[in-house]
Specification:
- GO terms for molecular function: transferase activity.
- It is built from seven helices and 13 strands.
- A hairpin with a 5-residue loop joins strand 9 and strand 10.
- The chain is α/β, with parallel strands linked by helices.
- The chain is 26% helix and 27% strand.
Amino acid sequence: MSTSPTLIIMAAGAARRYGGLKQLAPVGPTGEAIMEYSVYDALQAGFDKVVLVVRREFEQAFRDKWVDRVAGKAEVAFAFQEPDAFMPADTEVPERPKPWGTAHAVLCAKPGVEGAFAVINADDFYGPGAFQAMGEFLASPEANTGSTAAMVGYQLEKTLSDHGTVNRGVCEAENGKLVDIVERFNIARAGDAAESELANGGKLALGYDTIVSMNLWGYPAVMMDYLQAGFHQFVASKPEPTVEFELPTFTKLLMGEGKLSVNVLPTTEQWCGMTYQEDLPIAQARLKELVAAGVYPDPLWQ
């Protein structure tokens, strides 16, 4: 059994605002997808296995794109977020317009995970410093006690898009520990601060130094058991068809129950991603700069 952490990549999203399979869009100078840089950074930070959570119909596309190039450098496994995956026995699968959510996506990776693990989005660039911080945490005794997780905290200003609004998990932390996380919607620059739209039509000002989550989480192995039990409880509650079993919400629930504490690992890394089609050239320019600076080789896999 490996003692190195596993990286779970959530790549089953529908990409409604972007259009197309943005998880495989060519971002690097030699056509690399943005998630390839996350895998590269994770390997440098001590990870040795990657589990890709994808839709079954896109498995071959991911294999053809880059999985073979990683062979020999990391173990790569696939997991599929099917509607009936980890469904409680004797429970009829309800019809839903959307998948069960990000916490269910992570749970679907359970068969391929043996120990501590990290979770990321496929379409976000997190930066090498973020993975280094997470790798150090997951290698520490604290991450193997069964009660401590971690989240990389980004400065809001470094996670905004120039081409539209974004949603972010706004965090409150005390003494390096996560106290609360609240999803804020339709955030955009507004002069000296950013603004989020409220449900009542109002605006909430958010300082550019506000700490936000970009879904780079790290968990002890026991989290998979928590997720399975939590998903069964979620299904038993008969949620509305559009309500999802979300990773930040479930993590906060475990915090409230005293089962988990979450370290906030601050980073000054610049996020980039592909929320909108117009974000692609910006991400490409960012990776070109990093390659020119020697942060990454070109081609990435040599």
